[in-house]
Amino acid sequence: MKINYTFTFGLLLPLLSIGQTLEKPAPIKKAYFATVSEGILSVGNLGNVTIYKPNTESFSVNASNPIPRYSAFFHFGEQFHLNLGKSLGLYSGIGVRNIGMINRLNDTIKVKQRVYALGIPVGIKIGDMQKRVYAALGAELELFFNYKQKTFLGRGRGEKVEKFNEWFSDRTPLLNPSLFLEFNFKKGSYIKLRYYPMNFLVTDKQNFTVNNIKTGFRPETSQLFALSFGRVIGKKRK
Fold it and tell me: What is the pLDDT of residue 21?
């Protein structure tokens, strides 16, 4: 009896497909390292700002105007992940980020202020640990180790009249905690919402210099919010 090989193969093909479908999924990695990088969109609210006239007791009070700030460099982190089960995990690590704010103090003065921060996060992950699709809620303690300020004079973009940076500046707290909510998607992409409950700036240490004249300003507050767009650029199993 002749065998119709084409017909037989046609019958076996669905069975082979089913067999592949029923294969056991890859095991969940209980512990692994991940290298991450991100871009950060941040905005800071100074509220009402009091500007002190130099060498006088006069001052003016103005409602500040926050301007969104985006930074793509330099943000880099190394994370350690520990999965406790299929839907629960933890992670920590260490990272460096460039975070700050831009504010218009009045109609003619704009100030850009940023820090480089060294942070240690602790997060709780809930979701699918095998596919690495999860939400993470956590906190991070950040060390502000480099401060940079630019001052612009004039309407619109204005003219840059001052630029300087300081190591371990007294214009910002040395240590500042932040809270975050992170959503991690397939292929290593994530977005992260971050909030600093403490003031980003030391209120009574703020000033700028125009034409060699130092002028102080006191913000009502300096709350900072950030939205990060990140990606896992490398991972290694422990």
Answer: 45
